[in-house]
Each structure stands twice: as C-alpha cells, then as structure tokens.
Amino acid sequence: MRRLLSRTLTIAALALAGCGREAANAPSAPAAQAAAPSAGTPADAKADPAPLAIAAIFDEGGAFSEGLAPVRVGARFGYIDKQGKIAIEPQFDFAGAFSEGLAAAGAGPKTGYIDKQGMFVLLPKLEIVDLFAFSEGLAPVRIGEYLTGKWGYIDKQGKLAIKPQFDRAGSFSDGLAVVSVGDKYGYIGKDGKFAIPLQFASASSFSEGLASVRQGDFVTGKDGYIDKSGKLVIAPAFEAAFPFHDGLAEIQLGGKYGYIGKDGKIVIPPNFDFADSFSGGLAAVRMGDAETGKYGYIGKDGKIAIPPRYDFADLFSASDGLAAVRIGDEKNGKFGYIAR
Questions:
Q1: Contact 73, 81 (CB under 8 A)
Q2: Are 56 and 65 in contact (CB under 8 A)?
Q3: Which residue among 106, 192, 200, 317 is least packed, with the fewest CB closer than 10 Å?
Q4: Is the pLDDT of residue 103 over 50?
Q5: Strand 256-260 relative to strand 322-327, pairing
C-alpha cells in the first residue's frame, strides 16, 4: 500500500508500484472507538477476533517500512513500531510510509518530510500541494494548484531537480519514472529527459525490469509489458496488469484476477475477485465483492495460506514481515496487523 494516508494521490490511471491498489481508507470524521496506546504502550490484543500481531484499534493503518507504519487515531496520524507501540505521536494531517529515512507528512501549514523522530527536516520553499516518498534520491511533488499544478521532482535538499512539467508523475524505479503529459504516458530518466517517449494510454512503474503499459485507448485498450528499452516483451492481452514482485504479476482477465510469470504465461489462474502483489511469498486476495467479500492470502502455488477472514488486507511488508488488515466495515472497522 504505497499511499499517503488521508490524502488522495491524483495519479489517476497510474498503477504505481501495484501495491495496495484498493484504498482501504476509513472515514476521517469518526474518532477511534478504542483508545490508542500512549507512547511506549503495546496494543492489547485480547479483544481481537482473529490472530493479530498488533491489535485492531486504529482508524487507518498503512504499510510498515523501515520499522514504522503510519496509523490514524481519530483525525490525526502518527507512527507505530513493530510491537504496536506509538513511536511518533499522532499529530499529522496526513502521513506516508518511510523511504530512504524520510516520510512525506503534513501538519497545518507545514508540508514536507519528517525523520523517524517525527521532526520536519525538509520543508521545501515551494508551493507544494501534493508529494510522494523519496525513491532513488528524488521525490515527485506537485507545484501550484492541487488539481491543475504540474509535477516535478526534488532532491533531498528540497531543491528542484526536474522542473514541474508533468500532469502525473510516479517515483523513480530502476532508474526511470513514469510520467504523463495530457493523456499519454512515458518514462523519464533522472535528467528529466524522456527515455521512453509518451505513447501509452496508462503505465506503471518499472519493477524487476518490466513495466505494465496500456496500448489502445484507456477504456478499451489492453495491458502488456515493456522492458527498459521500451520494447514490448509481453503482448497486450490483459484487462489490467500490474508490476512484477517475487517474479509474478497480478493480471485481470474476464473480470477476475490471477498471476503471470515473466514469460507472460498464466501461473495462477484468474479465480479471484481482487488480488494484490506478492511480497515475501504471499499475496492478498479477495473472495467475493468489495462490500461483503473477505480477504486472505495465497502462496506462490496459488493455494490459500491464510484463510479469507479479513474485511481488508494489505500486502506484507518485505522488510518488516507485517501486513495491515481491517476487521469490520469501511465505516466502523479498525486496522491491526498480522505477521507472516
């Protein structure tokens, strides 16, 4: 789930990194129904209806990265550690995952990046209205108006490294970043120049040397995969296709989700109503519709590894081995974490 909690990231057609594609945001108005742990106090797991490593007491929960995960308690966001203890007190209007030691966050008039003590260490002197995490030393930021501003990239000194000129922009991965101008997508290098020209109806970030792209128009076109030279290596045959992780990529065929290998062949048949990326050998899948279906996890053999019993499930953190899950509906449910 690479997303800034409580903030709609206006990437539109981008399937950025493919993680956590179904947003599981709880509503921002209701306060937490269970008191959040104070700093240094572990969550009480006794009340949880399913085995959890961290109790389901948070109004929203993001993915762990670099030992911390953003959570919402009432109207404010903070961070917990792997024991479920509050590491950074809830104080932010929005908060993202840590990457390269920094996390995008906002508090009142402040919008920038915090360190693991919760202190703002980078407040770019720019009219930033949206921003993503750092990746490969650069971070995408939107300058100007929230809906009409252009995206560019800053470095860790807060200076513009690539001037704002794009309508959408993703994080750098494998040395390239997906961007759009108008309704066409392509890829730039760190010099801001196009390495793969604008030509696709949608596109995702590179992962494991490949990126999913859509040929044809956005509505009726099909998704396939290109390599870093822009060459089509898996023919456009899918209703939707997402980045490779652990050697597999989730795809959609006939309204159902399954997984392919890098040769484009089906490895796990499309039998699921939703499927997320693999991480550490497990992937979240949903059985049933978005309202009443349940989430569980499968292994790379396609067999159920963790039974579908959650109302939402995010991907497992590759670094920390925990995954956010929701128990209860989108309006009143609470987030906790399970271990691999």
A1: no
A2: no
A3: 192
A4: yes
A5: unpaired
Whether 6 has a pLDDT exceeding 50, the answer reads no
Q: What is the pLDDT of residues 135-151, one digit of tens each?
A: 999 999 999 998 899 99
Is 258 part of any domain?
A: yes
Task: Show the tokens assigned to 249.
Answer: 């990529």
The DSSP secondary structure of 281-308, one letter per residue, reads: TEEEEEES-TTT-EEEEEETTS-EEEEE
Within 10 Å of residue 144's Cβ, how many Cβ atoms? 14
Residue 4 lies in a domain: no
**In total, how many domains does the chain have?**
1
Tokens of 297: 């996890």
Phi, psi at 47, each rounded to 5°: -85, -5
pTM of the model: 0.85
Instruction: Residue 67: give its domain's CATH number.
Output: 2.140.10.30
Provide CB contacts within 8 A for 220, sequence distance 6+. none
pLDDT band per the 50, 70, 90 thresholds, residue 51: confident
- List, for residues 230-263, the tens digit of each pLDDT value: 999 999 999 999 999 999 999 999 999 999 999 9
Q: How far is CA 68 from the centre of its chain?
A: 15
If you search the block for the tokens 């800034």, which residue do you land on?
4
For 214-253, give the DSSP string. Answer: EES-TTT-EEEEE-TTS-EEEEEEESEE---BTTBEEEEE
DSSP category for residue 176: B
Please list, residue by residue across 100-122, b when 16 or more beta carbons sit within 10 angstroms of its beta carbon and e when fewer do. Answer: eebbbbbbeeebbbbebebeeeb
In-domain check, residue 214: yes
Three-state SS at 191: coil
| Domain limits for position 189 | 45-339
